[in-house]
Amino acid sequence: MPHGLHVPAVHLPALHLPVVSPRARRIFFAIRVLITSLVGLGVLLSVAIFALSATGTARLVPVLSNSMAPNMPVGSMALTVPVSKSSIQVGDVIVFSNPTQPSTRVIHRITHVYGPNEADQFSNWNPDVLFATTQGDNNPQADPWIVTIADATVWRLQTSVPFLGYPAIWLAQPLAPIWLLATGVLVVALWILRSVWHRPRAHESVAQEAS
């Protein structure tokens, strides 16, 4: 009679990982670097926008349309600085709230600044308020409003950088958090795959030990 139950040994087949060519590895590495760089750039821009706005030193404003093309096309990032309202003159590019949609910011060029001698054109004239007309450089007609700014300072364009505004525009989209999460998962997956593919296979290790 057997003294115990003997279970036969089960030999599982060895797991053979697919052989990945050096070219494929380079492509996956480039994709991972690109995705990581884009995410990092978006985060840095968000931090920069918040920091500059919080300190009042400057404001970074993404350009959402081609109304100021070709010098400042859509996707550019405009750097604006606060200046005295009294220093604003024709030709300056300023940021202001759309009079018909106050939640929308507009960055257009000043085409006319009203002075005290034109006060009779306005029933609400106030010498402490800036009255001006504006127009986009790429628009055939002037804006259909008169801008009024009562603040002591106005945000005036200092310079702009093409394409730098796209990450900020993208991050402002409603689905941006979902895409960021999906991108993070993809980066982790690519990192894991790269680690697995770089791990030496069993027969390679045996061959190296035998040599």
TrEMBL record:
Main location (coarse class): membrane
Cellular compartment(s): Membrane
Bilayer-spanning residue ranges: 29-52, 168-193
Keyword hit for Nuclease: no
Enzyme class, first EC level, given as a word: hydrolase
One cellular component (GO) term of this entry: membrane
Example GO BP: signal peptide processing
Ranges of residues in domain Peptidase S26: 43-111
Keywords: Hydrolase, Membrane, Transmembrane, Transmembrane helix
EC number annotated for this UniProt entry: 3.4.21.89
Gene3D superfamilies, sorted: Umud Fragment, subunit A
Pfam families xref list: Peptidase_S26
Molecular function GO terms recorded: serine-type endopeptidase activity; signal peptidase activity
Domain of life: Bacteria
Name of the molecule in the record: Signal peptidase I
Source organism of this protein record: Alpinimonas psychrophila
Taxonomic lineage: Bacteria, Bacillati, Actinomycetota, Actinomycetes, Micrococcales
